[in-house]
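Feature request, filed as a ticket because there's no other form

It would be nice if the structure record came with a short human-readable summary line next to the tokens. Right now we just get the raw output. Example of a typical job, pasted below so the devs can see what we mean:
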Amino acid sequence: MKKIALIAIIVLTAGFSATAQKTKKMKKVLFVVTSNDKLGNTGEKTGFWSEEFAAAYYELLDKGVEITIASPLGGQPPIDPKSADPSSATEDTKRFDADKTLQEKLKNTHKLSTINQKDYDAVFYPGGHGPLWDLVEDKNSIALIESFYTHNKPVAFVCHAPAVLKNVKVKGDYLVKGKKVTGFTNEEEEAVGLTKMVPFLLEDALTQNGAKFSKGPNWAPYSVEDGLLITGQNPASSKLVAGKLLEKLK
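Raw output as currently delivered:
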């Protein structure tokens, strides 16, 4: 009888454990991408940078995170054609290109105006030059970042995406004031020949708003965090940002 009772307890314990695993709440992260496909008045195309999106997306997805994608206009967001060039390919972008499920998901991004931070545990913004012309000034984006931050939820940005913090304020002060941040540097912008074409230089704008801007070598992975705020310098920093975001979600 003791053996039967012991077996029954083991079976019940295993059953409760399995149920607990099934009912464990999956973390939800919102990805916000640009809807802008114009590189100012140059006549050239832009959008979001695929490596920054893909590296973070798969880093989170493979750890069991549920991801929703939103953009100012909804629907298919533009991908910067330079990021789709074979010379820019990584293992993550190759996976991205072959991922039919994700491609379908991208065709149907949610309109940013319909998003509520209550439905998510964190927000992540990939860069590319596109956000400099729409998300920086987008009132829904500004309000959303403020709402995530004031509700004690992580906010993460990589490469040009930290530029969207330019107009974000919390209790009357710029969110970045006194905070450690990084992003696409003036030197890196000069290296790609776009310092005269972008509406502003990210490094200068965040520094002017009181941020403690730091940077690593050009094109090398570099990321910093300051409380709930996580930023990465360039495309190579995307996995670092996603990894720090994962730690915050634990």
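Something like this underneath would help us a lot:
The longest helix spans residues 2-23.
The chain has one domain: 26-249.
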